[in-house]
Amino acid sequence: MSKLNAEERKARDNDRFSKRVDERRVKGEDVVAYALANKKAFKFLTKSEKHSLKERQAVLLEEAKVKAQEAIKLRDEQELEKIEAAFPEEEDTKSSKS
Question: I need a labelling partner for 72 at 20 to 30 A (CA). Which of 17, 22, 58, 98 fits?
């Protein structure tokens, strides 16, 4: 088997991705999900599929931001609980003075 140059490899890969996207489209599978998982498939989507892909990417990005914010909030709450647990005597003195 002869070695392919860069241009030939790129053409071969493009052909493969084009076929994979077409096969999924014919089977009725979600080609947008495939393109989300495999960035190289993007250029073989139709205009409406590309639009749908961008919408899904925006939703996924927003979900990731929300999860990150929740993780930070949870971490801060846990850290605050640890700090409060380290100083229990202060709470005892406050309640006895009242």
Answer: 58
